[in-house]
Amino acid sequence: MPAFGVYVHIPFCTSRCDYCAFATWTDRAHLKGDYVRACATEITSAALPPASTVFFGGGTPSLLEPAELAVVLEAIERVPGAEVSVECNPESVDPAKLRGYRAAGVNRLSFGVQSLQTPVLAALGRHHSAAAASAAVAAAADAGFAESYSVDLIYGAVGERLEDWRDTLQAVLRLDPVPMHISAYALTVEPGTPLAGEPARYPDPDDQADKYLLADELLGEAGFSWYEISNWAKPGAECRHNQLYWDQGDYRGIGCAAHSHARLPHGGGRRWWNVRTPDRYINAVSTGEDPTAADDVLDAAASAREAAVLGLRTSAGIPEHLLVPDPVIEHLVKRSGGRVRLTVQGRLLADEVARRLI
């Protein structure tokens, strides 16, 4: 049976980070009950195939109580051994909540740690401390997630020195237990965010390149392997849900602003996405309307090019014939076994390499 994923968007937050452009709200917590019931209704109405992965993203999914999360999860039919992930903010979980998530069927956590340096957390607008992150990890281990939790980091905030970034990476690798998966994302300036209106706080690309190289070095020494530009894992701990995205697999987005994808018989693909606000989403589902806002159909050629761009970002690489020979980029790739893979320098210039695709 082909892999199939379900993404559930939880749009609630207690505060909004300056760099965030996601569909999230800080003033809609009173909608949580109606929202989770609407998600369960959308799932049931869609008659989805059994899911091999489920991912609760946001927003802050860990604002859901275990009983609320269970309402949604119980509506999703899953294959045996399905990966079920929940994104968590360290300050929004406690031992009881994590035990409740485990009992509901969650088997993987992704902690939005971002940094373990107080000034950097403040620059990012985060409200947890390094101590809170460590406490959340300990609670996760006690709840049965010792070998199935991930840490997300962000580098490039204003005022973050290379040594600050080194200290964060080393502190993450000293967590007890050590995470099996680490994501490290370069801070990006998204249009319409508060960060976008403050050029003095923009990240420096050269600084971010140095920090990426340092992350790859330290994580590699600690036994992690990169498998996508921003993701490293211990063997067997890769996020199967994200791999489904990078492989252009079929997945269904549930909730407001959630995106879906389905491969088409002719080789192309169709994407569609739901209405953006939780209010409109709840209203549409509760009145029996389709919550889809719009869609986009890719023909076979466009879908194949997208597959090559996505594949180039992964350690699996792409078939060699898809890359136009060009001496300008030969030091950015390595060729073996009929495939092309990015070198570590190539990962820094992945978009430039992608422009050489056939």
Oligomer: single chain
CATH superfamily heading of the largest domain: Aldolase class I
| Structural Rg | 20 Å
The count of DSSP E runs of length 2 or more, i.e. the number of strands, is 15
Instruction: Report the principal-axis shape.
Output: globular
Give the termini separation.
31 Å
Mean pLDDT: 96
Helix content: 25-40%
Number of H- or I-type helical stretches: 12
CATH class of the largest domain: Alpha Beta
SSE inventory with pairings:
Elements: E1 4-10, H1 32-46, E2 51-58, H2 66-73, E3 78-88, H3 95-104, E4 108-114, H4 118-124, H5 130-145, E5 149-155, H6 162-173, E6 181-186, H7 205-221, E7 225-228, E8 231-233, H8 240-246, E9 250-254, E10 259-263, E11 269-274, H9 278-286, E12 292-298, H10 300-312, E13 318-319, E14 333-336, E15 339-342, H11 344-348, H12 350-354
Parallel strand pairs: 1-2, 1-9, 2-3, 3-4, 4-5, 5-6
Antiparallel strand pairs: 6-8, 7-8, 10-11, 11-12, 13-15, 14-15
Helix pairs in contact: 1-2, 1-9, 2-3, 3-5, 6-7
List keywords for this structure.
358 residues; alpha/beta; TIM Barrel; 9-stranded mixed sheet; 35% helix; globular
Description:
- There is one protein chain.
- The chain has 358 residues and is an alpha/beta fold.
- Helices cover 35% and strands 24% of the residues.
- Helix 2 packs parallel to helix 3 (95-104) and helix 3 (95-104) runs parallel beside helix 5 (130-145).
- The protein is built from twelve helices and 15 strands.
- A nine-stranded mixed β-sheet has the order 7-8-6-5-4-3-2-1-9, sandwiched between helices.
- The chain folds into two domains: 4-244, Aldolase class I (TIM Barrel, Alpha-Beta Barrel), CATH 3.20.20; 317-354, no CATH class.
